[in-house]
Amino acid sequence: MSNTTTQALQYRRMAIAGLLIVTAVMLTGCAGNPYPGTKPVFKPKDAAPRISAQTEAQLARLPDPQVKSEPRSKRGNGPVYTVLGKSYRVMDDARGYRQRGLASWYGTKFHGRLTSSGEPYDIYKLTAAHKHLPIPTYVRVTNLRNGRSTIVRVNDRGPFHDKRIIDLSYAAAVKLGFQNQGTTEVMMEVVQPQPAVRQYLVQAASFTEFARADRSQKDLEQRTGLPGVILKTPDGYYRVQLGPVNAGAEVEAVRAKLLAANYGPPKLIPTTCLAAREDSVDRC
After folding, report:
1. What string of DSSP letters covers 93-133?
2. pTM, rounded to two decimals
3. Which of 11, 91, 96, 129 is most buried, by the most CB atoms less than 10 A from its CB?
4. What is the pLDDT of residues 247-260, one digit of tens each?
């Protein structure tokens, strides 16, 4: 074989090897997610975690997250973003929003990856992804096939599938009872934090003798149905306090019972005060 033929064969082999490398790189890029912070439409190799029946039962009993007022996250809130050539608008105000449709869930493939909010995805927390709701938003999701419901915190974007309205964490899917299925029909409703209810301790009586305070505490607990405590102040008084009691009708009902029993008008002490401490009873 001549040197010319040998060199030609070597060049050909090098060209083929280069082509294979380029093709492999292209295929790897297609399999990855070209939009950081969002999930691809298709979820190859996504799966449920391998957990015991006991752990699954614990997930099914997870308490709802506390609905609280939070500022919008710096990431993932648009106002307009584009995924796979399609644009989505983030709502300015989601109050009163309701939606019915299919819910899906995402699992181990995304566990630990950053969500659109920048928080890591945790399959064992009650979270969700939505295309349009502000991040974060709290929604109540009800499985219309079995009546189960849970509150989840939206901290991600998706699902980018025309027929699905919300993508739930694995824990939420367990709580809703469809972890063994791909999707289920749900009703989702945005929930708002409830205003904090102001509470009071009701100081009903004050005595110089502990025995009298003790008898009064027992009498007041029986009359009102509220737990009572006796606090000794630095000046030697024993003060009987009841509660806590919610502001409004509950306070007025207790006040009326005390007046009817000739205890006189009570002193209302906000629970935000340090009234339970002996050295600060008179500061509120």
Report:
1. --TT-EEEEEEEEE-GGGTTSB-TTSSBP-TTS-EEE-SSS
2. 0.62
3. 129
4. 999 999 999 999 99
